[in-house]
Amino acid sequence: MNAVAVIGLGYWGPNLVRNLHQVAGPRLRVVCDRDPMRLQAIARQYPWLETTPRAEEVFARRDVSAVVIATPVSTHFPLARAAIQSGKSVLVEKPLTTSSAQAEELIELAYRRSVVLMVDHVFVFSPAVQKIRQLVAAGQLGPIRFVDSVRINLGLVQSDVNVLWDLAPHDLSIVDYVLDRFPESVAAYGKAHVLPGIEDVAYLTLDYGGGLVANFHLNWLSPVKIRYTIFGGSQRSIVYNDLDPVEKVKVYSSGLSVQQLGAEDRRRVLVDYRTGDVWAPHLEKVEPLRQVVEHFLHCVDSGETPVTDGLAALRVVRILEAAQQSLRRDGQRVELGVRFSSDSAVPENTPAARPPAEKLPQEA
Ligand SMILES: NC(=O)c1ccc[n+]([C@@H]2O[C@H](COP(=O)([O-])OP(=O)(O)OC[C@H]3O[C@@H](n4cnc5c(N)ncnc54)[C@H](O)[C@@H]3O)[C@@H](O)[C@H]2O)c1
To answer: Per the count of CB atoms within 10 A, which of 1, 188, 230, 259 is most buried?
Structure first.
């Protein structure tokens, strides 16, 4: 009755299967991929799992109550909609959909069918990002002035989405979770070199108003892999290097302040550089994807709203959609024009939804 199925066993799906096997044991019962080679590869590793090449067979099963979808981005919406329509809770890979209209439809459908809709914004479940959120919320950095992020490597070039839709969901979900703010406008600039019309290099800028600006470099063609995000505050800054095995998060007390020496001459200023301590907080050693599947199953069993629910997914898709418009207009600024009320995080024009969980279980 409460069995779990995974659809899509390409590059990422087997990681979900491995974690579900560890967390859910025999509750993981069915795997599905339309490519028989992928099915065989998983069946060799987990011979007790039932296999099918047809997603409809998964949706028709009465023993399956939850479905994990790890297929290409363009297929998320039809598969998630069919799963929800047949009464299943869904965990969908990022980004949830390719348009905000589709995301809104899934949110409304899941609400009506009383099933869980969760998106795999996996970095939200990483101890590093949770620590950064705690430090920012505690006011350790002072007001945040900028976010600067580089996410580049020789990437798995996708044929259905560009580098923005592939990589930026990670950064956008991180800043959404850490800053708890929605940007006012977006600008994106990019170029396609490998596949026509599919940008493989992109630069994305979010303007939050009040001086806070965030910039993201996204690139599938870089010979080196870099995963760096800096949160710059007026008091302290955080440097987050996801590839550092030991000290992923470092807090810097360095900064500068400027003193105006004379009101009559604006060029006469005194710059005071502050080079302070650097410290690296202790981080738990857990695989974020394991936390994702644990949280999903917990929400399925308890009816709780996931931290990365449909609304969190919609916020990311809204920004991607606006960024895509900007990309087509050669980097022109696009206003987001959506007000998310500060206490509920529900955009005004979104169908009613259950209130989001305030905190991750391990923070409670
Ligand atoms: N969270 C992360 O860090 C992370 C990392 C990589 C990929 N992803 C996401 O995972 C998803 C899959 O990416 P990937 O790189 O594994 O893609 P992939 O192309 O390697 O694998 C997709 C698989 O889905 C199967 N498939 C496609 N349509 C199907 C259908 N209708 N029914 C059954 N099977 C179907 C394909 O045969 C293929 O085996 C994407 O949404 C991607 O954004 C997430």
So the answer is: 188
Task: Take atom 38 of ligand 1 and give the residue whose Cα is closest.
Answer: 10
**In this structure, which residue's CA is closest to atom 4 in ligand 1?**
12
How far does CA 15 lie from the centroid of its chain? Answer: 17
> Which pLDDT belongs to residue 340?
53
Domains annotated for the chain, with CATH where assigned, are 3-121+288-363 (3.40.50.720), 124-279 (3.30.360.10)
- 3 state SS of 4: strand
pLDDT in tens, 69-112: 999 999 999 999 999 999 999 999 999 999 999 999 999 999 99
Instruction: Return the amino acid letter for 122.
Output: V
Crossing angle of helices 163-179 and 127-137, in 10° steps, is 40
Tokens found for residue 185: 């406008």
Which residue carries 């979010």 as its tokens?
206
Residue 339's pLDDT is 56
**Which one has a higher pLDDT value, 163 or 362?**
163
Whether ligand 1 lies within 6 angstroms of the CB of 68 is answered as no
Name the pairing type of β-strands 237-241 and 249-252: antiparallel
The set of residues, in sequence order, having a beta carbon less than 8 Å from that of 194 and lying 6+ positions away, is 157, 200, 220, 221
